[in-house]
Design goal:
Shape: globular
Helix content: 10-25%
Structural class: alpha+beta
Organism: Aspergillus felis
Protein name: DUF3074 domain-containing protein
Radius of gyration: 19 Å
Number of helices: 3
Low-confidence stretches: 1-9
Number of strands: 6
Pfam families: DUF3074
Order of helices and strands: EEEEHEEHH
Largest sheet: 6 strands, mixed
InterPro entries: DUF3074
Mean pLDDT: 77
Length: about 160
């Protein structure tokens, strides 16, 4: 799967393989993020709201032109909504304060809570979209969390290597 984020609109297009069987899915969404307002726990909340699954005549022509020019010609418009909260949670009584690489760190873990719904649009039946064994959304979310955690680790290593 390839992910691209194109501007000026909040558009994300996922391209699946084999491309001959599955058209790219384009998601138009409003993403709102904020720090968690609790002083005892650091973290953030993100809300993703689908703006439209099927562009209609209700969208001004100028905006639709920007959307259409950013999405692939054969893209199917899809929708995705989520509410996510990521907070740092103290780990009780950790005997060692070093990670696997031997570096010191704090004794906190991340807690990631998420609620999501989506519709891939097109001819993919919903039961396939929701199926773990068919590689649907639940499996994709688990993979995405792993990708994000790996990316975060690489970013931290880049920061500590340059310091």
């Amino acid at each position: 799967m390839t992910t691209t984020n194109k501007q000026p609109a909040n558009i994300i297009t996922h391209t699946f393989h084999p491309t001959a069987l599955i058209a790219p899915r384009t998601f138009i969404s409003l993403v709102i993020s904020a720090d968690v307002p609790n002083f005892n726990r650091q973290g953030f909340i993100t809300v993703q709201i689908p703006l439209t699954a099927k562009p209609t005549d209700a969208i001004p022509h100028e905006i639709w032109e920007k959307i259409a020019s950013a999405a692939p010609r054969n893209a199917v418009f899809a929708s995705y909504a989520s509410v996510e909260q990521v907070v740092s949670v103290p780990t009780p009584a950790v005997p060692s304060n070093t990670d696997a690489s031997g570096r010191s760190g704090d004794a906190n873990q991340l807690e990631w809570t998420m609620a999501t719904t989506s519709d891939a649009g097109g001819a993919i039946p919903r039961w396939i979209q929701r199926s773990w064994t068919m590689g649907g959304v639940p499996k994709a979310i688990v993979a995405d969390v792993g990708y994000f955690i790996s990316w975060t680790g690489r970013q931290r290593n880049n920061i500590s290597d340059s310091a």
